Amino acid sequence: MAMNIILILGDQLSLSLASLKSARKSGDVVLMAEVMQEASYVRHHKKKLAVVFSAMRHFAEELREEGWAVDYVRLGDDGNSGSLKGEVERALQRHKADCVRLVEPGEWRLKSDIDSWVVDLGVTVEVLEDDRFICSHDRFRRWAKGRKSLRMEYFYREMRRDTGLLVDGDGEPEGGQWNFDHDNRKAASPDLFMPKLPQFEPDEITRDVLDMVAARFPDNFGDLEPFGYAVTRADAAAALDHFITRALARFGDYQDAMLEGEDHLYHSVLSPYINLGLLDPLEVCRRAVTAYEAGDAPLNAVEGFVRQIIGWREYVRGLYWLKMPDYRELNFFEAKRPLPAFYWTGETDMACLGAAIGQTRRLAYAHHIQRLMVTGNFAMLAGCSPQAVHEWYLAVYADAYEWVELPNTLGMSQFGDGGVMASKPYAASGNYISRMSDHCGKCRYSVSKKTGEGACPFNALYWDFLARNESKLKGNPRMGQMYATWNRMGEDKQREYRDSAKAFLDALEWDDGSWTATA
Ligand code: FAD
Ligand code: DLZ
C-alpha cells in the first residue's frame, strides 16, 4: 500500500483526530510543520506563538511515544519553505508519497489555500471533516435552513438534546429551565476568594520555543515571560481539574464581573487548550455535569459553563462556515476609524480599558466581559472599523482562531453583521462598567459625570454612537427605549454629548498601522 502523508495542523493536537483514526502507524507518516505563513498572518501575541509551537512539539513527542512515524519541521530548519503547501510538497518528495490527508482547517484563509493543492502539487488531497466539534457543518446548515433568525439559544437547546447534557429522559431541561443566565450577573466584591490559576513551569522544549520566539518575533505584541501556560494534554487536564474543583461552583454567579487585579476571577482559562485540541470539549462539559451531579457545583454555574461550550462555541463555528467568506467584510455601521493606539501600547487613563489591555499584554488572556463590554464596546462606540477590531482580537489572545474569533468580534461585539448574532448592539455607557466592576473608583474619569473634562468617556461616546446610527437602529424594537430617552433630552443636552464625544475622539492617538504590518 502506498504511503500517505498525514498533515496535522497546529490547532489539531488531538489523538482522536479523524486523520489519525484512518491512518496506519506502520506505513503512513505524520507531518507537522512550523511555518512563517501561519506565524505571521497576523502579528500574534508572543505568548500565543509560544503556546502553539511548544504544544506542537510536545504533541509530536506524544505521537512518537504512541508509535507514529513523525516528520517534524521546525521554523528554523534549513530549507523550511515558509508555507504549509511548500512543506507538504517537500515531505511528499522526501517520503515518495503521492497522497496527503488532513482534517479540514479551522480558517477559511487556509481552506482556500488547501483547495489549490490538488492542482498545484498534482497529488491526491483528502480533507476530512473535523469531528472534534459536536455539530457537523451539515447539522448546522440543516438547523439554520429556513430560519428567519439564527439565535444561539434555540441552537443550544438542540445541542443539549443531542448530547444529553443536563436533560432528562424526556428531553426536558434539568431544573425546568434551559438557561439560568438571569442568576449569573452578580458584581464581584474584593473579599471573594479567587483561586490562583495553576502555572506550568517551562520544560526544555518550552524553553527552546521561548528562546526562538524571543529571537524571531521581538516586535510582536505582548510579554513572552513569565510563561505558565499548559502545553501538554496532561497539564491541560490538570488545569481542567483545577477549574472543576476550585472555580466552577462560582463560575455562574460572577461570570459577568470584573475586579481590579483579578485577571480571570472564576473563569476557566481553558479556551487555548480546547481550541488547540488538548482538551475535548464534550469531555470538559461532562466533567462539569459530574460535579453538578455530585453536588459540588450548582446548576446555574454548570448550565452556564456547558452553554458556553456546546452552545456558543459550536454556534459561532457553525455560523462562521455558513457565512464565510463574505462575513469578514461586513460593516453594518460603515465604521472606518483605525483602533486607538492604546489598544497596542496599553497607555490610557481609563481604568477599565487599562486593566483589560494590560492583562491582555501580560497574559494573552482577558475574560468574555472584558472582551465584549470593555474593549469591544469602546471600539464600537468610537466608530472603529470592525475589520481593524477583528485583526486586533485575532492577534492578541492565546485562544484566537478566526472561526471562533470573527463571529464573536465582528458579529457579537461590533454588530458588524447588522444583527445575525445579536438582537441589538452590546453598547453600554460607563454605568454598566461601574455596576459590574470596581474599576471606576480608581479611574481618573468620573463615571457620574456625563460630559466635559473628567467625565467618563463611555458616557458621551454611548449617546454619540446612538445618535450617529439612529437611522440604522431606530427600527430595532430593543432600542426603542434608548431612542425615546435620547429624543426627550433636548437639543442642548444632545449637543453637549456629541461635542464631548468629538473632543475626546479628536484628542486620541490612532493606530498608524505600524502594529498591524505583517512580515
Ligand atoms: P470561560 O468563561 O471559562 O468559558 C468556558 C469556555 O466556553 C471557554 O473556554 C470557551 O471554550 C467557551 N466559550 C465561552 N464563550 C464563548 C464564546 N462566546 N464563543 C465561543 N466559545 C466560548 N473565544 C475563543 O475561544 N477564541 C477567540 O478568539 C475569542 N475571541 C473573542 C472575541 C470577542 C470580541 C469576544 C466578545 C469573545 C471572544 N471569545 C473567543 C469568546 C470568549 O470570550 C472566550 O472563549 C473566553 O473568554 C475564554 O476564556 P475562558 O476559557 O476563561 O472562558
Ligand atoms: C496559530 C498557528 C501558528 C502560529 N503556527 C502554526 C504553524 O507553524 N504550523 C501549523 O500547522 N499551524 C500553526 N498555527 C495554527 C494554524 O494557524 C491553524 O491551524 C489555522 O489557523 C486553522 O485554524
Please provide a brief summary of the model.
With 519 residues, the chain is mostly helical. Helix content is 49%, strand content 4%.
List key phrases describing it.
23 helices; mainly alpha; binds ligand DLZ
Structural features, described:
This protein is mainly alpha-helical. The chain is 49% helix and 4% strand. The protein is built from 23 helices and five strands. The protein has helices at 18-21, 36-39, 46-65, 84-95, 108-115, 117-121, 137-144, 152-163, 204-216, 233-251, 271-276, 281-293, 299-323, 342-345, 351-363, 368-382, 386-396, 402-413, 430-436, 457-468, 470-473, 480-488, 491-507, and strands spanning 5-7, 29-33, 70-73, 99-103, 124-128. It has a five-stranded parallel sheet, with helices on both faces. Helix 1 (18-21) links the parallel strand 1 (5-7) and strand 2. The model has no long low-confidence stretch (mean pLDDT 96). Residues 9-11, 33-35, 38-39, 44, 49, 52, 105-107, 110, 401 line the site of ligand DLZ.
